[in-house]
Amino acid sequence: MDIIRTPAWTRIMESLAKELKTQVRVGDAKYGIEPKQKSGEETKTVEHSIGTIPIKIGPFRTGDGKSDLPKWHDHYEQLIRLSITHAIIASETLLSRRKSPDIERTLFSYWQTLRGAKTLKETCEKSVAFLVEHFKIGNATIEIENARAQHFSLNEACKQAENIILAHIRETRVPLIIRNTREDALLSRIKEKSELPFNIAAFPLITNKRLSGQAILYSDVLPDMNQAREVLDELIASIPRIKEYELVQESATTDPLTGLANRAKLEPDLDKTIAHMRSKEKPISIMMIDADNFKKYNDTYGHPKGDTVLKEIAKTIKSLIPESAIAARYGGEEFLIALPELNPQEAKEFAENLRCAIQQNTPLTASIGLITCTNSSARKESLIQIADEALYRAKHLGKNRVFQKIMLDRNLGVIDA
């Protein structure tokens, strides 16, 4: 079957094997390295097929014991189906088009560039980098829904030109090629035309008859427009698959009730943040937040009302945390926040502001346990345990309060603030 012999199929299967940390076998072809399996270990292998050709992905570990095998997660099933569908569509598209060798090479290079892109933002960034490097143009911007990427910052004249071009594209939904920006009537209102590149090419990105975004190329010499259009056609074709992949990833890492990160997302993110702060010898603060008297409220007013309170607490947390923070639903009515780089006083002030905001925005109050390690030398598990102990102290002292502990170094013990 020709489909499984295309570069697109190979790229996607290799990417899937790398993502799942296991081997993908399609007929006689193997992608990735098969992990070692212990005798008697509980495992799972996923089986699909394309025509008469079997597809096997695995093995995965299904038990909780330590193993070299990757652990199976339920959302992998959807991820595998999406990847196979993506590979089939991309391969069929490649086989159905009769293209020149130059265009084939360009598209293969573009597919290689897009490898590993998991979000619209990453897709935009990789596409912009490819367009600028491959076609040797001065600048490019791509915007798809809320995701945007550009190679260089735009000067004021280019910003004005982009606004004019965007209005034109949104109205006409057709490509726009400006071959002389100095004399083009559409740009007549721009005074500093000398700051514009000589040529601008703009393309609407339309999916399912809907304008999803646009790509704008800036260059003194226009690239091969046929090749540029082919690349952007592939970008358009990838948008629905990338969006679906984002949804799969989000459902696997996000608490469905509150929209905050779940434990699966929290663990690796927290490890990474603590390690980064440790390398810089900067502080890390961990706080545990617990809704006071939540069980009583839930029993009195019912679970829907209780869920509303948890959503409001999460909304309050999102509105206050800095961009560098990590916020997660830790379990039940407990939430965890990690705040990098704040000193003990700043962390305490943040916790107090959060406590007051929860009291103001919800029918319940909250108790907060806080630990600040001033050089981030402590392990994640230790910091969470100390924050939990501080939370217990806050509850014991009457609730609706913050109790803080401080650690100067993991070898020097913990003091109450």
Describe the structure.
It is built from 11 helices and 15 strands. The chain has 417 residues and is α+β, with helices and mostly antiparallel strands. It has 3 domains: 1-96, no CATH class; 99-251, Beta-Lactamase, CATH 3.30.450.40; 263-416, Reverse transcriptase/Diguanylate cyclase domain (Alpha-Beta Plaits, 2-Layer Sandwich). A hairpin with a 2-residue loop joins strand 5 (139-144) and strand 6 (147-150). The termini are far apart. The relative contact order is 0.07.
Identify the notable features of this structure and list them briefly.
46% helix, 3 domains, 417 residues, five-stranded antiparallel sheet, Alpha-Beta Plaits, single chain, Beta-Lactamase
Sum this structure up briefly:
This protein has helices spanning 7-20, 75-96, 101-114, 120-135, 156-172, 225-253, 263-280, 294-301, 303-320, 344-361, 380-396, and strands at 23-26, 29-31, 43-50, 53-61, 139-144, 147-150, 176-178, 199-207, 210-219, 284-291, 326-331, 334-340, 366-373, 402-407, 415-416. It is of the alpha+beta class and 417 residues long.
